[in-house]
């Protein structure tokens, strides 16, 4: 150096730039005709349904396909134990003002084009006609002059009834949904928690061959919205599920009201509800006794002294 001082020059090795992570998945932008093969998962998680002996099992040991198969197996057995239960008669309510009906018919379409993509090219699989008519309620009314809450729950639960059982099994139906719209294991386990709450704990909706298809579709859809950031487009889910967009929305709203919007689930709740679901399916017993004896979905008698 010019001033006679010696300096040590640090040699810095330039490492190769780290590869950037792939972008997060966006189901709305996926190819509409793409399907997920139902082969073994590339992880150590099992794709086979697990027969549980306690409620403290490790939910991370099962794959999405395994969790779905556990849901299918338990719900089909529960439906066999319940038998056929007819829906309650429809409950009349004051008609919706014409102005409100017109506003509903002219709601704006989503501003994002992504929300409407994803249904073209998918095979159609109609699930059949619902028992409830379009004018029947899907929400619970509150207030001094509101009808009995039990009566309201029985009325909106009609949304899950089909006029006749679909011509395919629940297994065929849900594996088709997983084929075209796969979800995470947590979504399927959360759906089990919702279904157990309605069908076993509170006995609001009977698990029968006429209800389990619509009920499981709504539970999976609501669980996906509650737990996941990226969700399949509404139009795609509706077409794969064999219902219209409006019917799917009604099923979601109905499920939320029957659950009193208590949608939070954690790993402990998922594990416990799945175990309890399997036990109910195994023994045909709900929280209040045998399902066939307890499921008397008759409308409660209205108090004539209350107007």
UniProtKB/TrEMBL annotation:
InterPro entries linked: Cyclin-like_sf (IPR036915), Cyclin_PHO80-like (IPR013922)
Chain intervals for the UniProt region annotation (Disordered): 1-47, 82-133
Biased composition (Low complexity): 8-17
Gene Ontology CC entries for this record: cyclin-dependent protein kinase holoenzyme complex; nucleus
UniProt feature, compositional bias: Pro residues: 18-27
Pfam families: Cyclin
GO molecular function: cyclin-dependent protein serine/threonine kinase regulator activity; protein kinase binding
Cited PANTHER family: PROTEIN KINASE COMPLEX COMPONENT, PUTATIVE (AFU_ORTHOLOGUE AFUA_2G07660)-RELATED, PTHR15615
Protein name: Cyclin-like domain-containing protein
């Amino acid at each position: 150096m010019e001033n006679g001082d010696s300096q040590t020059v640090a040699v810095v090795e330039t490492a190769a730039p780290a590869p950037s992570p792939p972008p997060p998945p966006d189901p709305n932008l996926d190819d509409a005709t793409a399907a997920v093969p139902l082969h073994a998962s590339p992880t150590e998680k099992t794709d086979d349904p697990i027969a549980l002996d306690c409620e403290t099992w490790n939910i991370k040991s099962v794959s999405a396909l395994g969790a779905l198969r556990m849901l299918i197996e338990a719900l089909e057995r529960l439906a066999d134990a319940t038998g056929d239960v007819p829906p309650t008669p429809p409950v009349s309510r004051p008609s919706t003002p014409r102005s409100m009906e017109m506003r509903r018919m002219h709601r704006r379409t989503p501003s994002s084009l992504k929300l409407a993509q994803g249904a073209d090219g998918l095979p159609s699989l109609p699930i059949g006609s619902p028992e409830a008519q379009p004018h029947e309620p899907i929400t619970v009314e509150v207030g001094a002059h509101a009808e009995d809450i039990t009566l309201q729950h029985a009325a909106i639960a009609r949304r899950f009834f089909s006029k006749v059982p679909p011509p395919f099994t629940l297994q065929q139906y849900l594996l088709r949904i997983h084929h075209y719209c796969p979800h995470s294991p947590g979504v399927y386990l959360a759906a089990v928690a919702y279904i157990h709450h309605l069908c076993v704990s509170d006995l609001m909706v009977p698990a029968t061959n006429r209800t389990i298809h619509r009920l499981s579709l709504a539970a999976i859809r609501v669980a996906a919205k509650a737990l996941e950031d990226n969700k399949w487009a509404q139009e795609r889910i509706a077409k794969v599920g064999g219902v219209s967009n409006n019917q799917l929305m009604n099923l979601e709203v109905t499920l939320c009201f029957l659950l009193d919007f208590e949608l939070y689930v954690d790993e402990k709740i998922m594990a416990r509800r799945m175990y309890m679901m399997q036990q109910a399916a195994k023994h045909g017993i709900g929280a209040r006794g045998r399902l066939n004896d307890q499921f008397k979905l008759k409308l409660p008698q209205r108090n004539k002294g209350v107007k």
